[in-house]
Amino acid sequence: MAEASSLVSIINSHFLKCVICSEPFNDPRVLPCLHSFCCECLENWAKSCSNDNSIVSCPLCKKIYQIPEEEGIEGFPVHFLVTNLQDTVDEAKQKKSTTELCDKHGQKKKYFCENCDCSACSDCGTLDPSHRGHLFIRLKEASKQHSSSLEHLTSRVKNVEEKYTSAIQQMQQVKQNLDQDTDAKIQAIDEARNEFIQQVDNLVKAYKQDAYRKKEENVREIEQIEEKLQVHLDTSRSSTELASNVIESGFDSDIVSLYPSLSTSLQQLAQAQPTPVDSKLGQIKLEPPQSTLVDLLSLEQLLCNKLHITAVSTQHTQVTNQTSHVSEKKVTAKHLPAAAAESQQPSSAIKPLPAFATKTQVNAATASGQGPSFSLFSRPRSVPSTQPSTGKKWKECAQIKTTPQLEHPLGVTIHPNRDIVLTSTSSPVTVFSRNGDVKHIIKDSPSNIFDIAITPSNQYIIPGKHGMKAFYIYDSQGVLVSTTPTYDINNQPSTPRSVAVDSTGRIIVGLSWDAHQTVSVHQPDGTLIFKYETTSPPRFQTCTPDDKLIISFRDNTLQVMDLGKKKKKSRFVGHNARIIESPPGIQSWKPFYVCCSKQGELFVGNQGNPKAVYRYVCTGGEYKYLDCIATMENNPWGIALSADEQELFVVDWVSGLVKVFQ
């Protein structure tokens, strides 16, 4: 009886107590490492492992596991072996006072009947007919045999447990490999998209260059013809004027003496006819660019090359070639009009754009003299929308190094054609391609300016640097269109610091260089609509999709407000101003550049501590902090979104880099 009590005590202390609370298990949960803990204890332990309660480390072996997203700690399985063992121990405790004595003879059980598989007393073997002829051994020996058998089974189970643990670890590695492979595939897809866009840009550039070149050739020919026509016209007018003067005021002798030469000249002029105007000079005929300029692959082919798979259209072409002898008896797509031919294509096939290879390609269109069948504006297969969502996780994907001449970039905006437009302390406004090459410099634009904006009509809005009390409008080619003087709320000349453009093309200018606190709103051509006084000098501003204004102020507040209403004569004020709270746990809040997406997501660069870019989302008209996109070593400066809002560009003023996040 003492041995049984000792065994129950050992089981209780070694197998049925939680190591965290040192109490009997309450709702035991087992981790993949097979260590068990109370559900509540494990949940409290997980809170100390991570801030977002997404992982938990085993208190015994220190292995780290992901907490199930939906169920939390309760998602880990219940340890039924522990619960069953608890029930068995409880039953053993209740029966331990009765199991030591034989029910029939009242004597202590010292033997074990192997035939009946039960314990018995000494009289059971001699007096009980039910045990007659059975094999009895001592109870202690039977206990040793059973213990040895249990140890053997336990060892086998542990071996199986190790296999399960190894399998779980392998599955975790497979999951990690899946994440890495998915990231690699997404990166390859993005690279293919960028290459395709670059090739399309190159093709468009080549066509434009060809158009401008042929236009110049036609203009030179037209000017030569015009010059000849003008010479003939001048000669004709001179002769007719001379004849008229002789007739009106000449003497008879003058008329007679000049008649032979004048009549001959006028007869020649009367018979002459101007060269017929060639209407073809008013048109230009473009030709496909040479292969040395453009080698355009379809987006499908680029994707397949990046992903190492076979293009669907290639497979379709192979099938078509194998069945070409049948197609001769049918009406093929090339014999149909363009619209009908397109309708004959299988819906699952993607038609690649033809590449401009070194060999001349001949098709039905070119053979019939209709010109190349390729159209840059062919409608591609529909692609699912990729609108950004509030759940998107932004990660740094690239760094663009500017030229050495552009020492410290300040403001940034992204052109719809994906060019990167930068202001800096040392250079005029400079336009870069995505790979960091300088495309062109906006001539005569000021340097050492902080901000820049692009209107819906692709005009550049550039504020003047300190002392230049105006902002400038340049067209898409970088030619100055207009200069608009700026005045503060007291109608005193003031220098603009920041600009923004709303969805209607209105220009919003922040005046704060001269410690003034004024925002002025202008028509797209620069005409002043109104201006209003703010509570503090504005730093930078951005417009929301519903054309509200978000401003970062010099007093380190961030506010969203409606564009002004009139108050007191010529003064205007922003109204319904609401403070956007700083992110929780931040040490010092100094909002600087701001940027808003078409979906209403707000991006704020903090030049306080920590130096980081934060994201807000608009819910019910209120901007709520969502997450931190990136903590930076240096202060974030200009912030801008790409046209498709899939990339965020952040200027690092110190290193001269533009960091790109996706």
Q: How would you sum up this structure in a few lines?
A:
The chain is α+β, with helices and mostly antiparallel strands and 662 residues long.
How are the SSEs ordered, and which strands pair?
Elements: H1 2-15, E1 28-30, E2 36-38, H2 39-47, E3 55-57, E4 64-66, H3 80-95, E5 111-113, E6 118-120, H4 122-127, E7 136-138, H5 139-249, H6 252-271, H7 299-307, H8 312-322, H9 324-327, H10 338-343, H11 364-367, E8 396-401, E9 409-414, E10 420-424, E11 430-432, E12 438-441, E13 453-454, E14 460-463, E15 470-474, E16 480-485, E17 496-501, E18 507-511, E19 518-522, E20 528-533, E21 538-543, E22 549-553, E23 558-566, E24 572-579, E25 591-596, E26 602-606, E27 612-619, E28 622-631, E29 636-641, E30 648-652, E31 657-661
Antiparallel strand pairs: 1-2, 3-4, 5-6, 5-7, 8-31, 9-10, 10-11, 11-12, 13-14, 14-15, 15-16, 17-18, 18-19, 19-20, 21-22, 22-23, 23-24, 25-26, 26-27, 27-28, 29-30, 30-31
Helix pairs in contact: 1-3, 5-6, 5-7
